[in-house]
Amino acid sequence: MVKPHIVSIGFLTHGVTGFMYDYLLYPFTIGIFGAFAGGTIMTIASLIINYALVLLYRKTKEDWFGFEALRLKRAEEGGESKLLRFFLRFGYYPAFVGLSVYDPFLAFVYIQGRENPSHTFTIQDWKVFIVSNLICGLIWTSLVSGALYTLRLAFF
Predict the structure, then answer these.
(1) What is the pTM of this model?
(2) Could you point out which of 50, 52, 114, 136 has its C-alpha 20 to 30 Å from the C-alpha of 64?
């Protein structure tokens, strides 16, 4: 059963920390170290942070984002939810890439969820986790370094 206050707290906490990471720490690191070194540092940091979040998500018994409820609803109805149908109308892989760009942790939780409630990752878990984090790292590094380059040209 979905607890609205847990879902609200989950999205709020994740949104605030994600904003600070994406829009404050990421540009600062790329501005200091450059696109390649800064992007590598932030992608590795993202892998570590997201891995810890996945382990915490799996260890707790709460559905932080309502994704498990979406899966149950889909199973009860015998088909996909409207949200899933929206994403999948572009195909599975574009939907996965879109979720990965938005947030690799959410992409992993939505795709894999608590299918393996143990603290160990399966081969499939690692594949989904690493690919989603690499997609996000490459896209964010490109966007942030491009924005910083444009700002430098415009103001300095």
Answers:
(1) 0.77
(2) 136
